[in-house]
From TrEMBL, chain A:
Sequence ranges assigned to domain ABC transporter in this UniProt record: 8-248
UniProt organism field: Microvirga alba
Keyword set includes Transferase: no
A UniProt-annotated Pfam family: ABC_tran
Record key words, sorted: ATP-binding, Nucleotide-binding
Record's protein name: Sugar ABC transporter ATP-binding protein
GO function term, MF aspect, one: ATP binding
Gene3D superfamilies in the record: P-loop containing nucleotide triphosphate hydrolases
InterPro entries: AAA+_ATPase, ABC_carbohydrate_import_ATPase, ABC_transporter-like_ATP-bd, ABC_transporter-like_CS, P-loop_NTPase
Family of this protein: Belongs to the ABC transporter superfamily.
TrEMBL record, chain B:
Function: Part of the binding-protein-dependent transport system for D-xylose. Probably responsible for the translocation of the substrate across the membrane.
PANTHER family: ABC TRANSPORTER PERMEASE PROTEIN YPHD-RELATED-RELATED, XYLOSE TRANSPORT SYSTEM PERMEASE PROTEIN XYLH
Major location category of this protein: membrane
Identification of the protein by name: Xylose transport system permease protein XylH
Regions crossing the membrane: 39-57, 69-88, 118-141, 147-169, 220-242, 274-294, 306-339, 351-371
Origin: domain of life: Bacteria
Membrane topology type: Multi-pass membrane protein
Native source organism of the sequence: Microvirga alba
InterPro entries, sorted: ABC_transp_permease
Keyword Cell membrane (UniProt): yes
Location relative to the cell: Cell membrane
This protein's UniProt keywords: Cell inner membrane, Cell membrane, Membrane, Sugar transport, Transmembrane, Transmembrane helix, Transport
Length: 261, 379
């Protein structure tokens, strides 16, 4: 394993769906302990790119490297096994199930021999409480339903779950788009913690402020192409905003509305 | 003196602390109880029991009376527990009633027409049922149609096939006789028909612990095997739901199939297995009742699909999936048996049964919805 190589790298990824060109040459990379923000307006190809990284879609052409080695994923399971965990915006948690059952969903540790193989849910509840405590969320009762948690807490549980199960790269699909201010800052704070642990984070958003708050580098997508990647020091927030929204129109709109956009 | 003042100075504070502690524990205990989906069914069972203690002839609550209630409850209960697991997994099976009749036909044919030994006939019937259940499941998954529609189709297909098949097999009758004679005696027969624990009941009667006839045989000679199957199935299903990986997958598949898939749960496999389970539960009921009656007919299991779903809903299952309990369906089925049989012990017209049932269903759903919203923070 080449430790200097990026955790994930794509070179000129192209994805066609029949006659539709969803991605036409996307290059990006994420390093250890880095938050890469993937910015783009609706239809820029963000979802297609995430799904390609997560193993849902196979790229038509282009290179995909994990730890400097070429990989081809045929299913989401392959991506998970390679340490790439994706947290989808609202498809991560089941509200009617307890925090513990959600936390271990799909990866329940078992004890005993078949047919008496069972899951030690008491132990699972302890692990869940500890893991949540580490990120500053006090789940008094891990057996309470996820539906009783706030949106921000749910996102944090989903992220904590991915980290606990050994993810090296986290792909967060618009984790803050449905959240209020306090909830958003809770999630952003946690993304910062995850970065400090040495994980790579791909943070997908169309909110430039949220991206600028935690991002180290920014890759802007437009119409299936990368417009470029910028380090935080290289680009001020206004410029990033303009780049993402296609520049001119937004400036016009901004002056019409008295600089409020 | 100083000792006393010391103690007096501290005791009240410690007592307050202790009381507060107790209150904390009490609250968490109440929440814990509230969180159990079967709470409504248990409360319902207690209410119904109180009602019958007040109105029914005391003979209802003798050992013989209990067996009278539990016998039909157990047959329904086996279906209801399977239906509950499937409902928690997010699907319906309206074909279980018809499946009872169809399995009865298949089982009877294997015994009477092909002359297979009992054990082989039972195993083969379960294989056919599992295949049909699997077909139901695969149709639901591949077509993405609601299971309500797919299994409604099979409600009619299987009922029709049972009629046509019975007439074909018997040369025009809708009843197939002589199954009891062909089944023979032996261990396999004893597992699927008659009474269990007869030795224990004789012993209890001999020691005057339970009622007996003047000649010394107990008035209740044993527990009908269907009740034993019912209790065992309830225990195993509850254990699977609450303590195993498969159980977590069932909740997840019904709660949100997409989220479950994203987390690596094999949703399609879980749902197909559950459809196979309901078909096999219907087959178990068919074998138990056919062996007891010695014959099978085309009306067997008629409308049992609704009764099973009602028992599951009374037991706390949510119609939209992802929430419910097997032990709740167990209680739901007992409520069913108690009301249907219990009314004959009262001065009420036993046709009040259906009114009672409908009202019970409505109450149970309202109560369960209320509790669930409180506990799960659903809005």
């Amino acid at each position: 394993m080449d430790t200097n190589a990026p955790l994930i790298e794509t070179r000129d990824i192209v994805k066609h769906f029949g006659s539709v060109i969803a991605l036409s040459g996307v290059s990006m990379s994420v390093n250890r302990g880095e938050v890469l923000c993937l910015l783009g307006d609706n239809g820029a190809g963000k979802s297609t790119l995430i799904k390609t990284l997560a193993g849902v879609h196979k790229p038509t052409t282009g290179e995909f490297l994990v730890d400097g080695r070429h990989v081809t994923f045929t299913s989401p399971r392959d991506a998970l096994d390679a340490g790439i965990a994706t947290v989808y915006q609202d498809l991560a948690m089941i509200p009617l199930m307890s925090v513990t059952r959600n936390f271990f969903m799909g990866r329940e540790p078992t004890k005993g021999v078949w047919p008496l193989r069972y899951v030690d849910f008491d132990h699972c509840a302890e692990v869940t409480r500890d893991e949540m405590h580490k990120i500053g969320i006090d789940v008094r009762d891990p057996n309470q339903a996820v539906g009783t948690l706030s949106g921000g807490e749910r996102q944090c549980v989903a992220i904590a779950r991915a980290v606990y199960f050994g993810a090296k790269v986290l792909i967060l699909d618009e984790p803050t788009s449905a959240l209020g201010v306090a909830q958003t800052s809770m999630v952003l704070k946690y993304i910062h913690q995850v970065r400090q642990k040495g994980l790579g984070v791909i943070f997908i958003t169309h909110n430039v402020r949220h991206a600028y708050a935690v991002g180290d580098r920014f890759t802007v997508l437009n119409r299936g192409k990368t417009l470029g990647t910028f380090a935080k020091a290289e680009i001020p927030i206004d410029e990033l905003q303009n780049l993402m929204a296609g520049g001119k129109e937004l400036q016009v709109l901004s002056s019409e509305l008295g600089g409020m956009v | 003196m100083t000792d006393i003042s010391h103690v007096a100075g501290h005791t009240p504070a410690e007592e307050i602390k202790k009381i507060q502690d107790e209150r904390l524990k009490e609250v968490s205990f109440v929440t814990k109880v509230m969180r159990r989906p079967e709470l409504g069914a248990l409360a319902g069972l207690i209410l119904v029991t109180i009602f019958f203690i007040a109105t029914a002839d005391p003979s209802m609550f003798t050992l013989a009376g209990m067996m009278n209630i539990l016998s039909p409850a157990s047959q329904l209960g086996i279906l209801a527990i399977a239906a509950a697991l499937l409902m928690i997994g997010g699907e319906f099976d309206l074909s279980i009633g018809s499946m009872v009749a169809f399995s009865g036909l298949i089982f009877g044919s294997f015994l009477v027409l092909t002359g297979w030994p009992l054990l082989i006939a039972i195993a083969a019937t379960f294989v056919v049922a599992a295949l049909l259940g699997g077909l139901n499941g695969q149709l639901v998954i591949r077509t993405k149609l609601p299971s309500f529609i797919v299994t409604l189709a099979f409600l009619f297909i299987l009922r029709g096939l049972s009629l046509v098949g019975l007439k074909w097999a018997t040369g025009g009758s809708t009843q197939m006789r002589g199954i009891g004679d062909k089944a023979g005696e032996g261990l396999v027969r004893e597992i699927f028909s008659g009474n269990a624990l007869e030795g224990l009941f004789s012993w209890l009667a001999a020691h005057d612990i339970i009622a007996k006839f003047p000649n010394g045989t107990p008035t209740v000679t044993g527990v009908p095997v269907s009740i034993v199957w019912f209790v065992l199935f309830a225990l195993v299903a509850t254990w699977i739901l609450l303590r195993t990986r498969a159980g977590n997958w069932i909740f997840a598949s019904g709660g949100d199939a997409n989220a479950a898939r994203n987390s690596g749960v094999p949703v399609d496999r879980v749902k197909t297995s559950l459809f196979m389970l309901t078909a096999c539960a219907a087959t178990l009921v068919a074998i138990l009742t056919v062996l007891d009656a010695g014959s099978t007919d085309s009306r067997r299991g008629f409308q049992k699909e609704f009764e099973a779903i009602i028992a599951a809903v009374i037991g706390g299952c949510l119609l939209t999936g992802g929430y419910g309990s097997a032990i709740g369906a167990f209680f739901g089925a007992i409520i069913f048996g108690m009301v249907s049989i219990g009314l004959t012990y009262t001065r009420f017209d036993s046709d009040w049964f259906q009114v009672f049932l409908g009202a019970m269903l409505l109450l149970a759903v309202l109560f369960n919805n209320f509790i669930r919203k409180k506990v799960t923070g659903e809005r």
